[in-house]
Design brief:
Elements lengths: L13 H14 L11 H19 L7 H18 L2 H19 L24 H16 L3 H21 L20 H18 L2 H15 L11 H4 L1 H18 L3 H22 L3 E3 L21 E3 L2 E2 L11 H8 L6 H19 L8 H14 L20 H17 L9 H14 L6 H13 L16 H11 L6 H12 L12 H4 L8 H4 L1 H11 L2 H18 E2 L4 E2 L19 H15 L9 H16 L8 E2 L11 E2 H17 L4 H17 L27 H21 L1
Antiparallel strand pairs: 1-2, 2-3, 4-5, 6-7
């Protein structure tokens, strides 16, 4: 037998060479955290999210609503990452309260800020800037809502937009701060935040008036002197000014970038702000208290006994200094747009590291600093999600990046390799996971995944399971044959050929009735799972050897099983014959999510190696399309599928193994042109995002229903190698889908 280091490698198809080039390029990008992000950063982010969700859900809570609004936007991203309903519920409950207050406010369309003018009052200050922040949170919630709820949220944002456009937009494009007793002139804060709000509202509605007003506000900011004397000058507001001015540029850059003159002026202001941030962030964090500016020169006093941590001239733990938590957000945003993007990622990371001991000193509390740093965490962990939109004009819409998908796959695979399953290495539980490892190995630059599978084969002497007729014991042959196709080592196939030739010489006489003795029923493909375990192995062996007997056996017995278990009305598979007459609590037929996932993934893995000119191919493709359409209709609002396809309410927990197989099948279908991209791409992206959200900080995939045969309730922390296999198979096709689209 050849040693691993001397196994010859066969020439791969051109498409995989192209994908390899894409992988090299995408892997070389600056160190963005990807959709999962660094484990410690994720853990801290979600710890703050839990605190914030409790706070914004409390209708009796204190504090300005504009502070809540930044946390709500970050909670929306937390929901994207995890699918955890409590995060989006908190956002929706808070947004509903904002709309109820808005209905009672004067002037019409104004948001209640939780201070100054109250609902029903006609006197007192009311501010455009603070209300724009509230409007941004409602837009973020709207993007993650549907139907009438989404329309209500968008309607609320439009009412506020119209109020400001009709009354507070100045002729030079600047925005005044509404009913502010101190000034009725255009102001940097209201111009920055309202401009940001309008860029996002345009992206969600396509109303050109919003874009035009936002661009004019940005132009005004680009030509405004930030350091001159004015209400709340730089010398007093410092980090708040940088935070809010940059909001307009961070939200609007894709639009500002389209005109060279406009871009030049905007870029000058962006660079000024970013450099100001860098200078401030390089100042040591001191245990001192500083007075605010009352004159051009800073006045200090002796530190008091109870010390306040400050940075530069603004105490981080109170007032304007708390906005330092949001500055990395803008650095991360512009790391995507500026040539020295890696520099701004590094600056943001360094600042986050310096702020972390302050935020997490003791039990985390909800305050301005934690709310703003949540924004920064959210952008670092899920780039672009803070400006996610649902409109056709949404340049900021969430995008899956090839390198991020690959990163998620490698984290999950690494965790699984460090936690090997205790079941037989040749059994289906491990073998289904190995199928995913092989899919990852085909696109990863890391050699360790192929090496792990080679070591497994060597240790197992390339044998399949002991019960050779049982499809579960044949599944590992998919890995052996794929390794053979790469290394052309005959030792890898010898045991498989021997066993399959024996089956062909002595075929089982068992029927498909699952009520016969179990050992007899398992000699043939009498349960739907077997269509993943057996046929793909047989058809791969045909590809490796050219022996058509293996191909004929796979095709004939596939349709023997499909004709028996496929419900032509529901376009779904029963798990086995014992389920023909069973019903769910809601009276509907029992169709198990993972069982149908096995079938759809099995279809993919048969079609991958079935000759294009095979007379039976159209029938396989038709079955694939029928099932895809039906399964798509069963996708839940959280992006995944639950244990029962037709009774998800009785099994409310999302389930990742069946969901992974469905995502794999959909993405493969899009990549092969069998499924309409316009219909299936968005569900794939939604499912993949939710799957990644079920990966914990260590890389463990959760929400995997344990070994079974039908829908069951289970522990959300449950995992299994076959679930990992489904995740990795899904990721491999999602990676290709987004890479090839580019």
């Amino acid at each position: 037998m050849f040693s691993i280091n001397h196994r010859p490698v066969i020439r791969l198809p051109a498409i995989y060479c192209a994908l390899a080039c894409i992988l090299v390029l995408s892997s070389a990008q600056p160190g963005r955290a990807g959709s999962d992000g660094d484990a410690e950063m994720r853990a801290r982010f979600f710890k703050l999210c839990d605190v914030a969700a409790a706070k914004v859900s409390n209708s009796q809570g204190k504090g300005p609503f504009f502070v809540d609004s930044y946390a709500v936007r970050a909670l929306c991203v937390a929901y994207d990452l995890t699918g955890n309903q409590k995060y989006i519920d908190a956002c929706r409950n808070w947004s509903d309260r904002m709309m109820k207050y808005q209905d009672q406010m004067t002037p019409h369309g104004a948001y209640y800020m939780h201070y100054n003018r109250k609902p029903g009052e006609t006197n007192g200050d009311w501010y455009v800037a603070d209300s724009s922040s509230i409007g941004m949170a409602l837009l973020a919630t709207a993007v993650r809502s549907e139907g009438t709820e989404k329309e209500r949220l968008l309607g609320s944002a439009k009412e506020f937009a119209e109020l400001v456009m009709a009354n507070y937009v100045k002729s030079d494009g600047g925005i005044s701060d509404g009913l502010w007793h101190q000034s009725s002139q255009a102001w940097w804060c209201s111009s920055g935040i309202y401009g940001s709000f309008l860029f996002n509202l345009y992206a969600n509605t396509g109303d050109e008036r919003y874009l035009d007003t936002a661009l004019r506000a940005a132009d005004w900011l680009s030509h405004w002197d930030l350091i001159k004397r004015q209400p709340f000058p730089l010398s007093q507001q410092g980090p708040a000014m940088a935070m809010y001015v940059m909001e307009c540029y961070s939200a609007g850059w894709p639009y500002l970038n389209q005109d060279s003159a406009r871009k030049g002026a905007a870029l000058a202001k962006v660079n000024w702000c970013l450099n100001w941030m860098t200078n401030q962030q390089q100042q040591p964090i001191k245990h001192q208290v500083w007075l605010a500016y009352s004159a051009p020169k800073l006045q200090t006093r002796t530190p008091q006994p109870e010390k306040v941590i400050v940075q530069g001239h603004w105490p981080i733990s109170k007032g304007w200094g708390m906005k330092f938590g949001g500055l990395p957000f803008h650095e991360y945003i512009f790391s995507k747009y500026l040539p020295d993007g890696d520099k701004w990622t590094a600056e943001g990371d360094a600042e986050m590291q310096r702020l972390t001991p302050i935020v997490f000193k003791g039990k985390p509390e909800f305050n301005q600093l934690s709310a703003f740093i949540m924004m920064s965490y959210a952008e670092r962990l899920s780039p672009g999600s803070m400006y996610r939109t649902s409109g056709a004009n949404g340049i900021h819409s969430t995008e899956i990046k090839p390198a991020e998908a690959l990163n998620a796959m490698e984290r999950v695979a690494d965790w699984q390799l460090l936690h090997p399953d205790t079941n037989s290495a040749a059994g289906w539980i491990q073998a289904a996971g190995d199928a995913g490892i092989m899919a990852l190995a085909a696109i990863s630059r890391e050699s360790k995944y192929h090496e792990a599978m080679l070591a497994l084969g060597d240790t197992n002497k390339w044998a399949i399971g002991p019960h050779i007729y049982n499809a579960d014991h044949q599944c590992i042959g998919q890995t052996w044959t794929e390794l053979y196709l790469r290394y052309r080592d005959p030792t890898m196939l010898a045991p498989l050929i021997e066993k399959f030739d024996s089956i062909l010489a002595h075929p089982s006489d068992a029927t498909l009735d699952f009520k016969q003795p179990r050992s007899k029923a398992l000699e043939v493909w009498s349960w739907c799972d077997s269509l993943f375990m057996g046929p793909p192995t047989w058809i791969r062996l045909y590809t490796a050897t050219g022996d058509a007997r293996y191909l004929d056996f796979a095709v004939t017995n596939w349709w023997r099983t499909a004709d028996f278990l496929y419900d032509t009305n529901e376009h779904l598979f029963f798990r086995d014959s014992t389920y023909f007459d069973k019903r769910e609590a809601n009276g509907k037929k029992v169709f198990w999510s993972r069982g149908n996932g096995w079938v759809m993934a099995g279809l993919v893995r048969v079609l991958q190696f079935l000759p294009m000119n095979h007379p039976g191919r159209p029938r396989f493709e038709q079955l694939f399309k029928e099932m895809a359409g039906r399964v798509l209709s069963c996708q839940q609002s959280d992006g995944l599928w639950h244990s029962s396809l037709l009774d998800p309410e009785d099994y409310p927990l999302e389930e990742t193994s069946g969901s992974g197989f469905f995502t794999y099948a959909f993405a493969w279908g899009v990549n092969q042109g069998l499924l309409e991209r316009t219909k299936f791409e968005s569900p794939v992206e939604k499912a993949w995002t939710a799957l990644v959200g079920c990966v914990d900080a260590d890389g463990k995939l959760t929400h995997v229903q344990p070994v079974g045969a039908d829908p069951k309730k289970f522990d959300a922390d449950s995992t299994a190698p076959f679930g990992v296999g489904a995740f990795l198979l899904a990721g491999s096709e999602v990676y290709k889908m987004v890479a090839l689209e580019k």
